Structure formats: C-alpha cells, structure tokens
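Researcher: I'm preparing a figure for a lab meeting and need a structural model of a single chain. I don't have an experimental structure, so a prediction will have to do for now. The sequence is pasted below. Please return the structure as tokens so I can convert it later.
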Amino acid sequence: MRIIFDSKTGNVKRFVGKLDMECTQITPELEIEVPYILITYTTGFGQTPQMTKDFLSRNGRLPLAVASSGNMNWGNNYGRAANLIAEQYGVPVLMKFELSGTQKDVVRFKQGVDQIVYTDRKVDTA
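Model: Understood. Here is the structure written out token by token.
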C-alpha cells in the first residue's frame, strides 16, 4: 500500500520512518495514479496544511483513508485535518497520533492499513 505524507516540523516524517513501508513525501509537483493512504499534520487552529490541500486538489480521487498528527493540547482541534479531509473526500479517518507517534501508534496504523488492503481486495475479487 502506498503511503503519501506531508510533514512540516518532522513529526510525520519521523512517524513514517518507523513504518517500514513505501512512503512518498508530498512535493508541489507530485502526481499519483494509484490508491494511497494519506498522512498529514494539523496546522494553525485545526486546519489542513496548504500543501496537503494543493496535493488533494490534484490527486483527491484516490485516497483510501487519512491519518493526522497533532497535539492533544489543542483539544477538539487535535488532528482535525484528518476529520476535514475525511469529510471532504469521503474517506475514513484511519487514526490520529500525537506528534511523531508511539510504537503502539505504528502498530495500530499498520493494522488499519492491513484492514483497508484486505477490504479493498475483497471488493476487487467480488
């Protein structure tokens, strides 16, 4: 499963570095033609980062799920970018994790990806 991510302060980049999965960082010119899971961060007061928005405006037809890092100090805005993207693109929130995530978060993320892949294969073979 392809993982596409956006990172500003390095927290998301550190998280994906723990995954041992194929991960590609968003760049202004990135175009993708295969289904993917998006990991981003939440910025400001619960907003989606502009680079993530721009990427999705070009590649928004293929995400299967979204995850977001955040800081629990922001209360209801913790990881809110995932909620906003999920609502706009009709995909599930795979998870939210604080800062660069824990080892438990890594395990939970991988389990979520496995479930999506399994469900996607069931749909393809039906």
